[in-house]
Amino acid sequence: MTRNGDLPDVSLRLLEIFAGMMQCATTVETAEFLGISQPAVSTGLRQLENQLGLSLFERTGRRLSPTLEARDLFEEIRPLFGILRSFSTRAQNLRSGQIGRLRVISTPPLGYSLGPRALRSFNAARPDVTVSYDVRRLENVLDAVQMGLADIGLVLNNERPETVNSELLARSQMVVLMQEHDPLAAEPFVTAKMLSGTPIVGIDQASQLGRLVSRGFALGGGTYRPGVEVRYCQTAAALVAEGMGMTVVDPYSAEPYLCRGLVTRPFSPACEVRAQILTRKGVPHSGLLLTFMEELRRQLALGHAAQHPLQEHSG
């Protein structure tokens, strides 16, 4: 059935399936994400393609890749999808009688260090507040905040995103994580040349932090040939803890391992990283959000006083 000059009559449910598929790689992942069956996802996609008269996804092995038409349509429905999800979440919270709900999403460096410390203190003082806490990659955090699926995002990002509000939380620099008995631990800082010939656990150079480390080695005249390359700084830190060499990571990722016989030293040349708070544009900060942001700053100050891993922090 069509309306308004033969425009396709697309239901919100089909748009939700489409949006879910754009964020996942397979129909199985989309079904798990939406809480429906895999056949329902496949049927919905076929129905939507028939109604629109467009091919939205191309099969590549076991994965479905969006077509250019699908990407264009997804940009059109992003604002609508975010508004609808926010509306549904608000109605659910009101129905269940929750006093308040805070939705936090973070990239791994802050999500496994500063975020949990702030959340523990925040939650202890507010037992009736429900908190949703998730750790994802940078692009997922940006999307969640922009679409209203999260109230606050915590990221390490040296660029200022245009799609969301960003506030500088702290400046720090990359550090060398090593065993405490290593001879380089006696140095005040470690240069790229000092690491020549040392087994290095590297960060995927397709990532922002991986590119930052690679540039640091190039500027410092060192040779960057990691024997092991991983996606996340936390993984690199875990491998160093198992005696697999050294790594250059952000201080937040190194922090949980400093009580396990590891130490950090500043990496030279200095490679700055910026911790940022992200919030949605056009949406006033709630009292809960403002309180949590203040707790983040307080915990940051406490961590700085205890370990002094940061160069500067800003409220």
Number of helices: 11
Rg from Cα: 23 Å
Name the helicity range: 40-55%
Largest sheet: 6 strands, mixed
Number of strands: 16
User: CATH first level of the largest domain: which class?
Assistant: Alpha Beta
CATH superfamily of the largest domain: Periplasmic binding protein-like II
Descriptive report:
- The protein is α/β, with parallel strands linked by helices and 315 residues long.
- It is built from 11 helices and 16 strands.
- The chain has 3 domains: 2-81, Arc Repressor Mutant, subunit A (Orthogonal Bundle), CATH 1.10.10.10; 98-171 and 274-313, Periplasmic binding protein-like II (D-Maltodextrin-Binding Protein, domain 2); 175-270, Periplasmic binding protein-like II (D-Maltodextrin-Binding Protein, domain 2, 3-Layer(aba) Sandwich).
- The protein has a 6-stranded mixed β-sheet, with helices on both faces. A 6-stranded mixed β-sheet has the order 10-14-9-13-11-12, with helices on both faces.
- Strand 11, helix 8 and strand 12 form a beta-alpha-beta unit.
- The protein is globular, with a radius of gyration of 23 Å.
- The chain starts with a strand and ends with a strand.
